[in-house]
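Service request form, structural biology core

Requester: graduate student, group of Dr. S.
Request type: structure prediction, single chain
Budget code: on file
Notes: please return the result as structure tokens.

Sequence provided:
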Amino acid sequence: MSDTDNLTEAFAAADKGDASLLVGLYADDMTWAGFEPDGTQTVYTKGSFLEGFGEYWTKLGLA
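Core staff response, request fulfilled:
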């Protein structure tokens, strides 16, 4: 399976409430740059991603 296929499958599963495939794709020490909702730049980690993902599901009433 290609990286694109793995990501597509992982996000599709996460949309259905199973984030395990998505979490499994990220190494514990992985970081990447991104932007906050207010436009400021930040560095994300797997931990901050998981924290944000949990908040997202909670807001949707799915966590």
